[in-house]
Amino acid sequence: MVRVSILVTCVISLMFVVLTDHAQGLGVNWGAMASHPMDPSNVVKMLKDNGIKKVKLFDAEPATMKALSGSGISVIVGIPNDKLASISSAYKHAQKWVKENITKYDHNGGVDISYVAVGNEPFLTSYNGSFYKTTFPALQNIQKALDEAGTRQKIKAIVPFNADVYESASGKPSEGQFRKDIKSEMLKILGLLKSNKSPFFVNIYPFLSLQQSSHFPKEFAFFDGTSKPVRDNNHEYTNVFDANHDTLIWSLKKVGYQDLDIVIGEAGWPTDGDKNANKILAKKFYDGLLKKLAKADGTPLQKEYLEVYLFGLTDEDQKSIAPGDFERHWGILGYDGKPKFPMDLTGKGNNKMLKAVQGVEYMEKQWCVLNSDVRNGSILQTELNYACSQTDCSSLGGGRSCDLDLQGKVSYAFNSFFQSRDQDVRTCNFDGKGTITKDDPSKGTCVFNIQIYSAGVRHQVTYALSIFAGLVLMIFSH
Ligand SMILES: *[C@@H]1O[C@H](CO)[C@@H](O)[C@H](O)[C@H]1NC(C)=O
Ligand SMILES: *[C@@H]1O[C@H](CO)[C@@H](O)[C@H](O)[C@H]1NC(C)=O
Ligand SMILES: *[C@@H]1O[C@H](CO)[C@@H](O)[C@H](O)[C@H]1NC(C)=O
């Protein structure tokens, strides 16, 4: 009996090792730009339900950090770009940030923090150099403060860069080099990363390669092979993800830092807001990526497993759409924590859905739509422009989930506005042109959402109630 159970235990633990090994390098980015965030403890439970063991945050929001405490999930904590100036200007600001946002959680039963991400894509071309001078000194101050706080090199400071920090004129990885305008600060950062044995974090987006150039061969954005691979010395590239990754390896090599480890800080595919952003292409991208990660065969220049953080966890309706409307649709889960398409994190290609976030509460089943008798085109256009200036309309348009006529668009925008304002009846007026209905106006792929109760609002209500109760008690006790 004893022998049998030992054998069973061995087999089970072996299976466990084999099963978990695939997902070893896999993490997810958890952004916080949603107007109605879910309760972070429900989100953490979902991460555990799905076997996700690593997350990357963009800040250190206390409720999120609290929810992650004791979860065993490894966490990258972020410092937003707008804090870089202050942290770079005085060491004491870095000390304060570390004390408040790292030391507080760095204990047994606290948060298992792996890295501090200093800034987010600070050298992005479209930032026009705004964070050019502050990134390195901020990184230096944070690493020093971490060391002084006694994290014993366990927690390392890194900088997540966009892949636009390097380029290759011909598209061949071997011609890769860091962008000239950022090179001298980049060299300082590389030196610091190396002396700390910290990895280089890079965000790689085949979707953007496709979206930004009409000449980009579509199949090169995915992992199913191509009739026109890129040949480079003795290597053949069949997808832009590998080519981009190896362009970084070459860029590092040319400045003497080829031994830095590379982590993919973000990789993903959006599902709406662009003609190439939909669930079918997103599934195709993730199927290919996850299968590739499971095989652990890396890229032509780095034949080993890759550490990747998917982007992102949920849709975020308050993200800036300056780069494009797709920005609000990167979630592998929707705004309400439901999976959008089948996804097998083990890379075995099983056609199953991720487990959804539990405990999400929806508002009443009602929608705001346009009164059917409004037909004047110029009035409709005015209403559409107004509503869309106040709410999220990024799903509207040709080739997107909501390809509607003008009246349909106005209804969509009215509903989006109404839901975003927590179904307040006054926000479905529109000078008498709006009306509340109980009939779901959703059509085909175009879903008219029902908003969820946001964790924050519920907390505020409870807080307000307890203050009120406190006041009542005070009045009565006097
Ligand atoms: C700690 O992080 C939070 C959330 O990102 C931020 O609001 C706060 O200002 C940070 N603390 C310091 C001292 O900068
Ligand atoms: C960068 O410069 C462009 C062109 O001058 C401008 O449109 C944009 O707003 C600038 N962005 C930032 C973040 O300063
Ligand atoms: C539509 O509305 C505009 C603005 O109120 C008005 O000037 C125009 O005459 C209307 N058109 C029709 C066909 O009623």
What does this structure look like?
This protein is 37% helix and 13% strand. With 478 residues, it is α/β, with parallel strands linked by helices. It folds into 2 domains: 2-328, Alpha-Beta Barrel (TIM Barrel), CATH 3.20.20; 367-437, no CATH class. α6 (135-148) runs parallel beside α7 (183-195) and α11 runs parallel beside α12 (406-420). The protein is globular, with a radius of gyration of 25 Å. Residues 376, 378-379 line the site of one 2-acetamido-2-deoxy-beta-D-glucopyranose (NAG). One 2-acetamido-2-deoxy-beta-D-glucopyranose is lined by residues 59-61, 96-97, 100-101.
Structure summary:
This protein is 37% helix and 13% strand. It contains 13 helices and 15 strands.
SSE inventory with pairings:
Blueprint (H helix, E strand, L loop, with lengths): L1 H21 L3 E5 L9 H10 L4 E4 L4 H7 L5 E6 L4 H6 L1 H13 L8 E7 L16 H14 L7 E3 L1 E3 L3 E2 L9 E2 L4 H13 L4 E4 L2 H7 L17 E3 L2 E3 L2 H15 L7 E6 L11 H17 L11 E4 L56 E4 L6 H14 L15 H15 L13 E4 L17 H23 L1
Parallel strand pairs: 1-2, 1-13, 2-3, 3-4, 4-5, 6-9, 9-12, 12-13
Antiparallel strand pairs: 7-8, 10-11, 14-15
Helix pairs in contact: 2-3, 5-6, 6-7, 11-12
This protein binds 2-acetamido-2-deoxy-beta-D-glucopyranose (3 copies).
Question: Which characteristics define this entry?
Answer:
glucan endo-1,3-beta-D-glucosidase activity; nine-stranded parallel sheet; 13 helices; alpha/beta; single chain; disulfide bond; Glyco_hydro_17_plant; two-stranded antiparallel sheet; EC 3.2.1.39; binds 2-acetamido-2-deoxy-beta-D-glucopyranose
